[in-house]
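Task 17 of the worksheet. Students: predict the tertiary structure of the chain below and write it out as structure tokens. Keep your answer in the requested format; marks are given for formatting as well as content.
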Amino acid sequence: MNAFLLDKFRLAYEDLFPKCEIQLFSGDTRNILQRLENENLDCAILPMPVEKDLWKVRQIAQSPLVVCMRSDDMLGSRAQLDIREVAARIKVFRDPELHPSAHSRLAEMFAEVGVPINLTSSAATPADMQLMVRQGYGLALMDQLCPLESGLISRPIAGLNWTSDTAFVTTKHGNHMAIPFIEKWLDKNEIGNIRKDSQMEPLRRPLQLRLIG
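Model answer:
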């Protein structure tokens, strides 16, 4: 997931529960969902789509997909790119097995504009994808918020609203005491919208009730 979103979530949690440690785990989407099902995790921040019939899914961010390329690429002189002209050069993708439903949706998006996916190289992480792009294996689609390494640039796609969507996911019966407070805060704030950062509503800590002696 995007490090920007993780940082916002971590800061929000620390403000809400200042004396409670948050434990983080990473992995591919299938592995994380399995951990949720086994109750080894309480919640997750995952790329969409996630099956809403099986999980409680709350979208928390949406960011445009852009084309990542080397800074010396001739396409860098353009302000926007036509997907039909560059699709054949977009060859680097996330490994489809890490999130099959997300790759299927991406294939549908390409099909909707009449171009096939040309997957010749796959990677587990955005960092690995950027490495492949830098080494000349092709272009890649990246989240606009994803920091780019030196030697890489990105350009938006003209006329298409292709986005990277992120969700806060819990089990249908999630019972960790923190979850309702997090969900309430998420309802009022868009942690993936940079323009709202300065206007985010502060977290309201749960009240500590006095015991009657």
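Marker's comment: The CA atoms of residues 69 and 116 lie 19 Å apart. DSSP finds six helices and seven strands in the chain.
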